[in-house]
Amino acid sequence: MPVRRRLSSRWLARASALLALVVLPAAHAGYFNWDMVELPPESGASCGNGTPYRFFVNRTPLNHNVSLTFEGGGACWDQDACEGKGPYSASNPNGIPPDYMHSLQTMAAGGLVTPFTSRLDPFQKVRTQDWTMVYLPYCTGDVHAGSKVSVYDDVDPSAPRVQHHAGLANIRAAASWLRSNLGRADDLLVGGFSAGGVGSTVNYATVRDTLAPKGKSTLLADSGPLFNAPRASTTSSTQYPSLPLHQKIRPAWGLDEPGGMIPRLAARLPALDVNNLGSLNTGLARAYPQDRFGYLAFETDNVFSGFSYLDFHPEVHASDPEVQKQLVNQLWRTDLANWLPTLAAEANVDYHVPFFRDFNDAHCLSIVDFSGTGVEELGVASVLPFFDNLMDRGPVQRNYETDQVSDLSQTLSPIIQLLNWLENLFV
């Protein structure tokens, strides 16, 4: 769910200094500018600290296609994490400022965090860069999925954190605003990275039904997998390593409560098993058979896996960091092995799972650029042809790296090489 502690403050500071050299001055109104939308309190929308939820729209007159990106970054169910303290804590604990998309000191980095939110990206071209782009910041600590106000006082009872897990209301209100102000989309792309990968998946039905695209609708969920984790007396965390995490977040974020994510989705998706969050992937594919669903992940993701298991599997803790990574990755591989066959069972679901890239602890394929995201043994140079095939409705692709050496030598782009060098320089 996190993006290595929001790409890490060290990485972001060095990246911002470099990216400042290529960011174009912002316009002040109309097209090709990130316009801020502040949702009213009566919509139920809110950041975690109770301040207004704001999102951003970059319009184009060239077409009526719309691309939405859900931001990633941590999650919380205790006081420290909701206040932004700790390696996997919630992003933007103090809310979203009006100039969020015009600052290089935020995770969005002026839109350059991903090619899907950069109109004139200097590193990577994607077809949706001439679409209307929507950026949905993340400030609720609930992977854009919660619907509960919680009071956390486990660290400092004298100054408790009142946390508005309002992710679900934020996206519902944002989608309603977009429909009222943009009308029906032609083609629609719903995507996100890390926690936003989860958020794009759990909110896909809401966004898709509200915007009611006239043409194609597509999901591209990057490195935020909802793994299978059945709640049953016959299942265990050994079989399904994400089960303890899912058991934790369901009550913490109000997922099962009236009006929560699970009841709302169950009403829309007949194939959803309310006792298994991972069944959402199947539920979406069957409810929208004309749509395409693409899922991305690295086999060696060291961030989402750490978030998913370190608090719940004491057996993976080790004094040697490399040994700990190996133990954590074993659980990740178990979850992947349970997840991928359920995706492959649906005729409109694609996945792309390379082995590794030496950037951001092999977490997220779509941030900064697509270098190092290929599956060489299948002749797939990067995630870009996978994405193009998904959008073009080509033959379903199920790309999985079995050669676990080749990607170690994949060439990263000069920008990522430079960012890695800068990060290592200032360790």
TrEMBL record:
<dbReference type="InterPro" id="IPR004963">
    <property type="entry name" value="PAE/NOTUM"/>
</dbReference>
<protein>
    <submittedName>
        <fullName>Pectin acetylesterase-family hydrolase</fullName>
    </submittedName>
</protein>
<feature type="signal peptide">
    <location>
        <begin position="1"/>
        <end position="29"/>
    </location>
</feature>
<dbReference type="Pfam" id="PF03283">
    <property type="entry name" value="PAE"/>
</dbReference>
<dbReference type="InterPro" id="IPR029058">
    <property type="entry name" value="AB_hydrolase_fold"/>
</dbReference>
<keyword id="KW-0732">Signal</keyword>
<keyword id="KW-0378">Hydrolase</keyword>
<dbReference type="GO" id="GO:0016787">
    <property type="term" value="F:hydrolase activity"/>
</dbReference>
